[in-house]
């Protein structure tokens, strides 16, 4: 019965009706009582507090006053009227203003009467004002005492025109709670609730909207956050269980000749401890009989590509092909070159397929792929086209996975009758708490150790006014035989401007570093691929000293001889992006530098980003700072991946709670994977309610 009440159309709640229901639906996607109750206030105002007029010293804050109307005045013409009301108390006076509903307000108010006035301060000239405050006769206020805390709800302009401002929303909430059928069923198993001392759902919902103390507010928030995080984790983990059950994985039972020869004859350095650990994790997945779905995180240069190659050799030893997909042609090229260099002698057949592969090369290549002659295919998006058919694809690796969408991943899945093992790699570390939610259905491996002998990159912040010293420094480095990058921002909205900035930059750098002594390359996204590759190639071979570019070189490009990364307009880049760019240098054993050039004027957030980068080298520390500064919605890669829309929990602040909820979810599913037992059936219903029918708990039962 109460479940039915939760799905009761909002339209039929007292005070709503069809027009408001329509607005609620369009603006907030609220259609049922349950949606409404889960639309939480973003904050509260303590209405037990009264202020004196003389205490007002800030704009944009809520104040509650009592005072007498000293005078009223209407200004302007019919088209544009304004009402000002002078309100006075013992300490002074303030002007209340209305720009709308002037006639109606004028009739309602009376000079000489005492009112309770509540609103948000504004200013006009050098005086404070109160635009559009709520007004109530003091006598009426005294006759009907208010709730201590007034909830504030986010509402839109359209909602406000239909009376659904913050106060209107509160009224609807009240009406729901007074409905005779109002009673909610608590899906949270009582043993979990008791163990954590969480309050019951009915209390939590009442208190989140109308708390009578800070304690109630906190109790309600805790309970609802935990519920939210638990449901999300149950959902993600169920998806994973379901996949395990439904999808078979190719069994790579042996490590054979290719792997062993490579290890003995071609690998001239020791794997780091972290690399060894990850290789073991991949091995275990690939021989388990379950399909591997693993995210490999590791800082730029930590040796992920090498690990992927080792996995590909295992696939080959078991008679399977591997696909390695990279987001850009430059990167695919580079992977191809390094992997070929590594494996040329042991007879691994590697091919490169990109958008610029010529038709006459492409045809025989596709034939060799279909008959199994090609063991490892490296490429860009070109890899997932329909015409690309493998004989027996067993492993698919995606580099810089945040550059790809879900659909592209899915297309790799379909390249064999049974999905290949999947390894997705990223050098944009995602904070663990976020990864748990974002990739909760993947297993995660982390390389948190750099190959030995790397010197930490020295990072400095330089204002544009110091440009000449920066140039001198770069000349010094070039004199020592090194190379340098100058990177310019290129952001879509202002693409033309940015391109001009880049060209201007190129010109001034070419002037400062003149031929024949210096040679400067340039690449950007608008160039034809062959021109781009040619320019890049010159820099890679050391024929040019300086590479001027946009962020196209951000991912993966490997020129160990480059020792300086100059980032122009560094204030316009995100933290993770700056960290990626910095990773382009410091690839050899010598000292490298990253110089962040900025304007003299910086926002405080930009300053924080620059300072974080100057102080830290740890990608995970930087990712955490990025998350704290920008919020999860803005992080690279979170947009396509579909971060769940959280109503109350906060992935940054509630990370302890999140870890706990994940642990609880694992315990619940271990005992009852289908959620069919006793108390868990309500959880299953709640999950289906929130996430639809795709998951296992919906399939069963
Ligand atoms: P990533 O893909 O994580 O950015 P790469 O696999 O491209 O890193 O490795 C960066 C460089 O370090 C490559 O030149 C690679 O050959 C080298 N490298 C990888 N692992 C090691 C190691 N254990 N010891 C020394 N050098 C390594
Ligand atoms: Mg890489």
Describe the overall structure.
The chain has 27 helices and 22 strands. Residues 635-642 and 695-701 have low confidence and may be disordered. It is of the alpha/beta class and 701 residues long. Bound molecules: adenosine-5'-diphosphate and magnesium ion. The site of adenosine-5'-diphosphate has 15 residues, from helix 13. Adenosine-5'-diphosphate binds next to helix 13.
Helix and strand arrangement:
Blueprint: H1 2-6, H2 17-28, H3 33-37, E1 43-46, E2 62-76, E3 81-89, E4 92-98, H4 102-108, E5 114-120, E6 122-124, E7 127-131, E8 134-137, H5 138-143, E9 149-152, H6 157-161, H7 166-177, H8 190-196, H9 201-209, H10 214-246, H11 257-266, H12 273-286, E10 293-298, H13 304-317, E11 321-325, H14 329-343, E12 350-353, H15 359-370, E13 376-379, E14 393-398, H16 406-413, E15 421-426, H17 432-438, E16 443-447, E17 458-463, H18 467-479, E18 483-487, H19 495-512, E19 520-523, H20 529-540, E20 546-549, E21 562-567, H21 575-582, E22 593-598, H22 604-615, H23 619-630, H24 638-641, H25 655-671, H26 680-691, H27 696-699
Parallel strand pairs: 4-7, 10-15, 10-16, 11-13, 11-14, 12-13, 14-15, 17-22, 18-20, 18-21, 19-20, 21-22
Antiparallel strand pairs: 1-9, 2-3, 2-5, 3-4, 5-8, 6-7
Magnesium ion (MG) binds next to helix 13.
């Amino acid at each position: 019965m109460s479940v039915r009440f939760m799905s009761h159309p909002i339209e039929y709640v007292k005070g709503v009706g069809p027009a408001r229901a329509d607005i609620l639906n369009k603006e907030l996607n609220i259609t049922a009582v349950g949606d409404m109750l889960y639309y939480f206030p973003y904050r509260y105002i303590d209405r037990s507090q009264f202020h004196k007029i003389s205490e007002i010293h800030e704009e944009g804050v809520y104040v509650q006053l009592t005072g007498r109307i000293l005078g009223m005045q209407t200004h302007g013409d019919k088209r544009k009227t304004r009402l000002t009301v002078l309100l006075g108390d013992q300490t002074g006076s303030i002007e209340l203003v209305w720009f709308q509903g002037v006639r109606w307000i004028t009739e309602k108010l009376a000079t000489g009467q005492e009112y309770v006035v509540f609103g948000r301060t504004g200013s006009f000239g050098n005086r404070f004002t109160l635009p559009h405050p709520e007004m109530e006769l003091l006598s009426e206020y005294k006759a009907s005492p208010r709730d201590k805390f007034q909830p504030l709800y986010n509402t839109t302009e359209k909602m406000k025109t239909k009376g659904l401002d913050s106060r209107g929303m509160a009224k609807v909430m009240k009406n729901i709670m007074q409905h005779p059928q109002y009673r909610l069923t608590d899906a949270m198993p009582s043993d979990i609730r008791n163990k954590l001392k969480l309050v019951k759902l009915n209390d939590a919902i009442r208190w989140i909207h109308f708390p009578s103390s800070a304690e109630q507010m906190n109790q309600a928030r805790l309970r609802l956050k935990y519920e939210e995080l638990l449901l999300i984790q149950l959902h993600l983990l169920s998806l994973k269980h379901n996949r395990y059950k439904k999808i078979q994985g190719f069994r790579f039972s042996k490590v054979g000749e290719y792997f062993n020869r490579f290890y003995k004859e071609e690998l001239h350095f020791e794997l780091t401890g972290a690399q060894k650990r990850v290789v073991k994790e991949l091995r275990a997945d690939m021989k388990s009989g379950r399909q591997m779905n693993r995210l490999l995180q590791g800082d730029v240069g930590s040796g992920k590509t090498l690990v992927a190659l080792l996995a590909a050799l295992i696939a080959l030893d078991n008679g399977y092909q591997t696909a390695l997909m990279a987001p850009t042609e430059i990167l695919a090229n580079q992977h191809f070159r390094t992997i070929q260099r590594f494996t040329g002698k042991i007879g691994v057949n590697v091919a490169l397929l990109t958008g610029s592969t010529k038709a006459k090369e492409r045809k025989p290549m596709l034939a060799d792929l279909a008959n199994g002659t090609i063991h490892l295919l490296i490429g860009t998006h070109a890899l997932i086209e329909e015409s690309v058919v493998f004989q027996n694809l067993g492993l698919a690796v995606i580099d810089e996975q945040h550059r790809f969408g879900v659909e592209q991943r899915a297309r790799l899945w379909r390249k064999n009758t049974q999905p290949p093992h999947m390894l997705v790699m990223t050098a944009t570390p995602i904070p663990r708490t976020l990864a748990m939610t974002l990739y909760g259905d993947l297993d995660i491996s982390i390389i948190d150790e750099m190959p030995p002998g790397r010197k930490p990159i020295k990072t400095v912040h330089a204002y544009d006014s110091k440009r000449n010293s920066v140039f001198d420094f770069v000349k010094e480095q070039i004199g020592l035989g090194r190379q340098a990058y100058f990177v310019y921002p290129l952001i879509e909205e202002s693409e033309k401007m940015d391109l001009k900035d880049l060209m201007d930059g190129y010109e001034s750098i070419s002037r400062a570093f003149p031929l024949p002594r210096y040679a400067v390359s340039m690449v950007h996204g608008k160039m034809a691929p062959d021109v781009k590759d040619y320019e890049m190639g010159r820099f890679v071979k050391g024929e040019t000293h300086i590479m001027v570019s946009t962020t196209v070189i951000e991912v993966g490009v490997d020129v160990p001889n480059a020792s300086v990364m100059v980032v122009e307009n560094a204030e316009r880049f995100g933290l993770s992006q700056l960290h990626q760019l910095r990773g382009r240098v410091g690839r050899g054993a010598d000292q490298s530098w990253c110089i962040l050039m900025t304007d003299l004027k910086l926002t405080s957030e930009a300053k924080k980003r620059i300072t974080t980068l100057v102080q830290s080298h740890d990608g995970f520390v930087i990712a955490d700072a990025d998350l704290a500064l920008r919020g999860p919605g803005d992080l690279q890669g979170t947009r396509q991946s579909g971060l769940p829309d959280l109503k109350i929990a906060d992935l940054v602040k509630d990370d302890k709670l999140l870890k706990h909820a994940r642990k609880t979810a694992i315990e619940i599913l271990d005992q009852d994977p289908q959620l069919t037992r006793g108390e868990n059936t309500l959880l299953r219903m709640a999950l289906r309610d929130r996430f639809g029918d795709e998951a296992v708990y919906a399939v069963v039962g």
